[in-house]
Fold this protein.
Amino acid sequence: MSDQNVWKKAAAEAAVKNVENDMVLGLGTGTTAGFFVRALAQRVAAEGLRVLGIPTSEHTADLARSLNVPLTSFAEHIRINLTIDGADEVEPGTLFLIKGLGGALLREKIVAAASERMIVIADETKVVERLGSKSPVPVEVVRFGWQTTEARLQRIGAKTTLRPGTDGNPLVTDSGNYIIDCAFGAMADPKETAHHLDHVVGAVEHGLFLGIASEAVIGGPAGVRTLVRAAPK
């Protein structure tokens, strides 16, 4: 296992301690979230932990079922007690996030927004001084007229790339949309960027998660540390 995966696994195993009996959990998508689902399954098996999960992707749903983690849906539970998910970038202090490089940002944001609490798990390489320093902002867009949506994204300053799938064709999300990755560079004001993205016709959702996470559990070479969102000034 690479050092990075060791750090991810350590963060996931620390975060799973926040799970309590009878919780409805949001289950994230991506490699770090996968470590969390496996750690959760171990607690379910060893302790008889009673939980229900709402997965943010078909991949996560399949993983949870294979590990005997019970699942539910919004039809049965409209509120989620706790979501634990990874991130592509984490800004300390604000705990602003970029998410969506795993291709599930729309469902991830729906789940996060329905949660009483969100904990982010990540390895040390995901911590940045300013969002956009390393990662683009994924934007999920309707396939119809995506070229015009891309042009609108470019007009607000994005350097755009239509995300390819493994077969060379455009990636199609679980919700049937495309993803356009938008490089803005290091953002002085992510809220302003999010405001512009919120008003792009054809864009379904974007990967700026602002004011949603309350804690971040970060694994690194020195062990695991917890970042807490600073109180607004």
Q: What stands out?
A: The chain is about 30% helix and 25% strand. The longest helix spans residues 31-47.
